[in-house]
Task: structure prediction
Amino acid sequence: MKKQERKRIHVRTLWFFLLVHLIFFSGVAQSDFPESPITLIAAMAVGGPTDLSARAIAIGASSYLKQSIVVDNKAGGGGTIALSVTTTAKPDGYTLACSPSDPIIITPMMQKVPFKPLKSFTPILAYASPQHTALLVKSDAPWKTFKEFIEYAKKNPGKVKYSSAGIGQSMHIAMEVIAQQDGISWVHVPFKGTVPAKTALLGGHVDACSSGVDWPPSVQSGELRALATHGETRSPHTPNVPTLKELGYDFVNRTVHSIVGPAGLPPDVVKKLETAFRRGTETPEFKGMIEKLYMTPVLYGSEEYDRYLKEYWARSEKMLKDTHIIKEPATQPY
Result:
């Protein structure tokens, strides 16, 4: 009897020390994150604002984490291809996405996507706003003003072709709002980013471009002309160009650029990544790039960005329904 009792005590002791060992070493492993390079999937084409800002913010984040961050571009689907890849990754913090908020929220309202916008991601950080996007035409185009352009489009249904960075991007939605309000029929030509969309205009393949924020140099050089901008206020680079809001359209570009991971990231990993990318926004390289890209800095941590996405869904769904662009979201949020 005593021998059996000693055996039971011995077994319980072994289990106790095994449990302590597992708890201790799992905690050590988690605190050592990351132990290998992190992949940051950029949702847009090389050379555009998403790509360049991702590479800039990765500099400081990589330094803080003491691991390299490899930027991998997977453009297409208005940004949803990169996001789809991210949602299927192991939720360990080693695969993340850098994306505007539009492919997460607005694009899924307009087309079916293989993820749930408010369920499939772990928000980490939002870091910049490209609010001053714009409607552009070539400098030798016959339209000198927004009014002239709209009048032509009304009189010539289906003739005007315009480019954008993809279906469901704010620049696409801006044109749809105008079309719905003014009864215009024009042709949308989506591309895999702002650079190819603007290149199509410069090459004469489209009549106009609803452009990302990287347009000021092309306007200042005389290649292109801005007819309207999409911000809450006029762009400081073209103070003589009106906003869509001034022109009577219920549209302001409220998208933000951000870092997200797959759903289910451990809280301590989220915290470490959030801290790392916050550090990334403090470097001269990042600040210089954001200024160069004509973006406005913002800073939403994980919880704040999560609230933003939920509010953005509600506000965007109402706008798209009110303007009859959609009847119901093509993808449900949860």
